[in-house]
Automatic annotation (TrEMBL):
Gene3D superfamilies: Glycoside hydrolase/deacetylase (3.20.20.370)
Compartment(s) of residence: Secreted
InterPro entries: Glyco_hydro/deAcase_b/a-brl, NODB_dom, Polysacch_Deacetylase
One of the protein's GO biological processes: carbohydrate metabolic process
Pfam family, one: Polysacc_deac_1
Signal peptide: 1-26
Bilayer-crossing regions: none
GO cellular component terms, semicolon-separated: extracellular region
The UniProt record lists the keyword Signal: yes
Protein name per Swiss-Prot or TrEMBL: Polysaccharide deacetylase
Domain NodB homology, chain residue ranges per copy: 86-290
Species in which this protein is naturally found: Idiomarina xiamenensis 10-D-4
Highest taxon, organism lineage: Bacteria
Length: 357
């Protein structure tokens, strides 16, 4: 009885300080895969054996692999606290044939749900990509097949002589016709969109929101209640990110409660080569602010705290041409070994406004 009373008191105390709610979910880690093969480019590949290792690790360590729909519904309905602790979502981009050949049997063996983002116009290249028949089979096994645009263009890039309105028209036509092709082949599917190359801009986010989509990037970090539903992060799990040692930390990561970032834009102006990032948090009650660490590639960025809930970081070295990210982590006070994580993507263009794939 005495023990029970003590436990009850502790529970009430934790609940009253808000620490309870921190351990109670509202946190989803999405893993992003591309190829599952031993012969495709390493940077976007895991081997079948690596994928099996990942899935075994998840199931043997109390992670709860949930369907993407369950996560989206919870966050959309402001019900994210109902999600299980250590929730994980598995996604594959581009719909390669090797996902059908190697990934699907492994996911079936472990009985785990997953999502495939496809580019309908590219599926005609059938040796490389799955066809609709294969996708239909995956769907029948419980996979969700959703939108990755028609043909994997750099959607945030305007064409020469294209004005804002023409850009909007072209991009919304692309997304809408891709959705139509998916719905025609597989029945009406939820409006989920993965940005090609993970590239998004405030204008593209607004467009997708107006079209009723939730949208996913490929900047790292978990998904929490402050994450905009048009810029949901995913952890790449291929290539050098396939190592279980580093993946373990990411699987346990907690969404940093970021409410505002400056700049909002990820596309940098030509003279903006060392962008300062300012991050505002809803709170930092459970974060060890003094141990916040940020990185831009290999460079360690020393953060400057402006208040308990606001910091800035700025690199000393110029970012390279193309995509890069700032990653920031800070240990949790209440949960040993877990880190709050936030990532901000940037894109630096060359003098002609282009950048590599
Ligand atoms: Zn892709």
């Amino acid at each position: 009885m005495r023990f029970f009373k003590h436990a009850l008191y502790t529970t009430l105390l934790l609940a009253s300080t808000g620490l309870m709610s921190l351990s109670a979910a509202a946190n989803v880690v999405i893993l992003q895969y591309h190829h599952v093969s031993e012969t495709t480019p390493r940077v976007t590949s895991v081997t079948p054996e690596e994928l099996r290792q990942h899935m075994r690790y998840l199931t043997e360590n109390d992670f709860k692999v949930i369907p993407l729909t369950q996560a989206v519904d919870a966050f959309q309905n402001d019900n994210a606290d109902s999600l299980p602790d250590k929730a994980v979502v598995i996604t594959f981009d581009d719909g390669y044939q090797n996902v059908f050949d190697y990934a699907a049997p492994i996911l079936k063996e472990f009985n785990l749900p997953y999502t495939v983002f496809v580019n309908p116009r590219l599926l005609a290249n059938h040796d490389f990509y799955m066809g609709w028949d294969e996708l239909r089979q995956l769907q029948q096994q419980g996979a969700l097949i959703v939108n990755h645009s028609q043909s994997h263009q750099h959607l945030i890039r305007r064409l020469a002589d294209e004005n804002e309105q023409q850009w909007q028209q072209r991009v919304s036509d692309d997304i809408r016709s891709a959705q139509q092709a998916i719905d025609d082949a597989l029945g009406q599917q939820p409006k989920y969109f993965a940005y090609p190359y993970g590239e998004y801009s405030p204008a593209l986010e607004t467009l997708l929101q107006e079209m009723g989509y939730v949208a996913f990037g490929q900047h790292s970090g978990p998904w929490g209640k402050y994450t905009p539903l048009t810029a949901i992060p995913r952890f790449p799990a291929s290539g050098r990110y396939a190592s279980l040692d580093t993946l373990k930390t990411k699987l346990l990561s907690l969404a940093m409660p970021v409410t505002e970032v400056k700049p909002e834009q990820s596309l940098l102006a030509p003279d903006q080569v060392k962008p300062e990032l300012q991050v505002t948090l809803a709170n930092s009650d459970d974060m060890r602010n003094s141990q916040l660490q940020c990185f831009a590639g290999a460079e360690v960025l020393a953060p400057t705290w402006l208040s308990a809930t606001q910091f800035t970081v700025k690199p000393r070295e110029a970012l390279g041409i193309g995509r890069s990210r700032y990653n920031c982590t800070a240990p949790s006070e209440s949960q040993a070994g877990r880190y709050y994580w936030y990532s901000k993507p940037f894109i630096r263009t060359d003098s002609k406004g282009n950048w590599p794939d």
